[in-house]
Amino acid sequence: MEQKRMCVRFEKAVELLSKRWVALIVYILLPGPKRFSDIEQGLPNLSGKVLSDRLKELEAEGLIRRVVYPEMPVRIEYSLTDKGRALSPLFADITDWAEQWIHPDEVPAKPNSCL
């Protein structure tokens, strides 16, 4: 029974992180807070509409925090919550794996990708 519950949790986690753009958005936010335009610039093939949708989904899942600063003009920053930062070791492992197994000649050049 315990393995079945764990399988359901694992499935939910993989479903969330494998949704298009989600992992890259989390990856971009790992170093610290970013504004919408910074995230958008780091993912040039991602439309503003989809980015907005994904940010809302990640906020609803408790992975990111949206902070509005009442300045002129209004400044909005996105950052990882503790739940989102807890993914950091996973992304470090993926980075290590990619450095070992994904060769530069297999990756098309994308300027400004992932900052």
Our count of domains comes out at: 1
CATH topology (level 3) name: Arc Repressor Mutant, subunit A
* Superfamily (CATH H level) name: Winged helix-like DNA-binding domain superfamily/Winged helix DNA-binding domain
Question: What is the averaged pLDDT score?
Answer: 91
Helix proportion: 40-55%
Q: Report the portion of residues in β strands.
A: 5-15%
Order of helices and strands: HHEHHEEHH
Oligomer: single chain
Residue runs with pLDDT of under 50 for 5 or more positions: none
The major beta sheet can be summarized as: 3 strands, antiparallel
Question: What layout of secondary structure does this protein have?
Answer:
Blueprint: H1 2-17, H2 22-29, E1 34-35, H3 36-42, H4 48-60, E2 64-69, E3 75-80, H5 82-85, H6 88-101
Antiparallel strand pairs: 1-3, 2-3
